[in-house]
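To fix ideas at the outset, we first show an illustrative case, written as a sequence plus integers encoding its fold:
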Amino acid sequence: MESRDGKNPNSNTMSDRKPKNIFSQGAIPAIFIAESIQKHSSQTAIGGHSIFLGQVRADETDKGKVRAIDFTAFEDMAIEKMHLIREDIFAKYPLTCMHVHHSLGEVKSGEICLFVFTSSAHRKAAMDACNETVERLKAELPIWGREVMEDNSHQWKVNN
């Protein structure tokens, strides 16, 4: 179980915190999400969780229908930036924990590519922190998605 700060529960200095790898290849499986939620059932000080699941849409574009998104990133830079965002969010909200997972590689329409999970003693902090985390990582992390069409042509996705 990850502690409030993602490290040794007895350590409170920022320098002890290490950036966490948020990336995994391919879609994020539903069983992984369910197990992540279940692991928190023993944490009785938590009163609220907020979860955001980003799913690949089968958008209709000028080039055709999207069948998948192929995600790439400057991984080291993104991991370091996510660490800074995480520190900012923990300083702003009284969270118990935060988990962020983002896909790399091809993720098909209908599959999950982003999982953000925040927990707190109260729901408002968990919800506000989750929302801010999603907005910041979409705006600040060097992650790109190449939309792959049904005919295998592609175009770069614009984040909305």
